[in-house]
Amino acid sequence: MKTIRVVAAVIKAKNEQNKPIIFATQRGYGDYKDGWEFPGGKIEEGETPQEALKREIMEELDTEISVGKLIDTIEYDYPTFHLSMDCFWSEIVSGDLVLKEHEAAKWLTKEQLGDVDWLPADITLIDKIDAAI
């Protein structure tokens, strides 16, 4: 089975009530269209995961991020490929999170993390995020 290496940004901010919020995006294309995920993408040859994540977020959301600590590396078997996904805490440095490839996006509070239909690999990260925020 083919392995695809990707990175994902768990973008964290604070809402008006000073509570932590997490940015989630709804996939706009492909086999898993409409599923919710943490934004990111494939690691290109010669890139570190952190470099790939900064590039992908700039390409997909027109936003510069700072990449923080690794939360986890998710290993997940989809029907046609194996996904290896490095997930990092991230924060916005500049930009307005413009949706270039996604259908929709939401900022979710800790209590709302279960309110969207996460893709199978991404949902495995929810408990770790919930415990950390």
Number of strands: 7
Strand content: over 45%
| Helix/strand class | alpha+beta
Alpha plus pi helix count: 3
> Major sheet: size, sense and barrel closure?
7 strands, mixed
Shape: globular
Uncertain spans: none
Rg value: 14 Å
Provide mean pLDDT, rounded.
96
The percentage helix is: 10-25%
Q: Give the N-terminus to C-terminus distance in angstroms.
A: 35 Å
Instruction: Output the helix-strand order.
Output: EEEEHEEEHH
Per-chain topology:
Elements: E1 3-14, E2 20-27, E3 36-37, E4 40-42, H1 49-61, E5 63-77, E6 82-95, E7 102-109, H2 120-123, H3 126-132
Parallel strand pairs: 1-6
Antiparallel strand pairs: 1-2, 1-4, 2-3, 2-7, 5-6
Descriptive key words:
7-stranded mixed sheet, single chain, alpha+beta, 133 residues, globular
Overview of the structural elements:
This protein has 133 residues and is an alpha+beta fold. It is 18% helix and 47% strand. A hairpin with a 5-residue loop joins strand 1 (3-14) and strand 2 (20-27). The longest helix has 13 residues, at 49-61. It is globular and about 45 Å long. It starts with a strand and ends with a helix. The model has no long low-confidence stretch (mean pLDDT 96).
Structure in a nutshell:
By secondary structure, the protein is α+β, with helices and mostly antiparallel strands.
